[in-house]
Amino acid sequence: MKIKITIGLFLLAFLCLFPSNGFANAGLFGGNGQNVSLESTEKVQMVSEDVDIYLARAEQPVTGGMKWETVDKAHYTCHFELKNLTDKDVTVSVGFPLSGNNFFLPRYDEKNEDINQGKIISQFNFIAGTTHGTYPIRYVRTDVKKQFTHIFLWEMTFKANETINLLVSYSMRGYYGLGMTQKKPYLFGRNRYGYGFEYLSEFDTAITQIFGYVTATGKSWHGAIEKATFTIHVGEYEKYLEKRGASEIDEDYVYYRQQQARAPFSALYRRITPAGWSEQGEKNKRVVVYRFTDFKPEMEISIQYAFLLIPRNLNDYRKTVSILKENYNKNRAMLKANTLSEWDMNAEKNIADIILEYYGISTNNAAIKPFLERQIWYPADAPRKIDTELKENLLKMEYAPVMQSK
Predict the structure, then answer these.
(1) Which domains does the chain have, with CATH numbers?
(2) Coil, strand, or helix at residue 375?
(3) Which comes out higher in pLDDT, residue 386 or 147?
(4) pTM, whole model, 2 decimals?
């Protein structure tokens, strides 16, 4: 008797900041070759799931180049306890579907499947096995419905009522690029600026890095998972990001030269979803942990870093205002002036108050309230550390006086 089962994990390539996508992790697959399809089983239970995610820097400088080696990565080590619930031997085809930044992967050769097998399995450093040895891995590009991509399959045989501890490890690139900082639903086009000040739209984008782990297809196993733990190791990686900034300095890369006006003074904002995680440890040892009992695999874990257009000191604030005004004037000239409002007298005050609000300092500025309410970082959960000189100068700024008509 043979049952086709797939334990899957998806790392998603997000096209905008803090999205929600529908791919998932563990599931039962039936069929062969490219014709595999998602099913369900009552014969095998995933008793426990224990996943460690280690975020790590790329092999080469991160400067925006669209190469596998220039995008930061995550290493995954997964321990699954699988139990045959029947009193008969069961052979299953188990696998992980991975989805992500497909344009970083080796080019798929339609005529040479052997090349695809070697290239892509090694690209992900994919290994599956037990303490007794590893399984031969077979790569399938997609399922029959094209819901899942990069499916890694192998055979497992359970004796009657046997429990097997399955170990899986691999590496996956995250997403690196520009993303939206708006809350959903996103606003686009001219109506995007319900804030009333077009220059504030510059704050709607950020240089973004995203990693993830999705559990939803685990519903195709029998029952709930008795115990699940997900541990994200963030300490070393965040120390590196704070030092690096949005990009690593390398004057040989054109992309970096285009972005360097923004990158050096961007504040690093982190958001991990869903809620309910706990942060433990200190400095380089910091980890984020989710622990569950009777876990129903439906959630999507997303680890998201955004380098916002929020300055870290007074000098950077002045650069920020200068760049925003320059960009505004260029847009005004390009759009023949009549489509943009004036750089109003309170523009710098509004920008200053946005920065203060990011750092958790309330300004009661009604003019920027519509903008703030659409930002993923607002309101601040707690005050963020702000440079003293920057804070003092921003708090000194006042509104322009109202002109009285004669």
Answers:
(1) 2-174+210-261+269-300 (2.60.40.3680), 314-396 (no CATH)
(2) strand
(3) 386
(4) 0.82
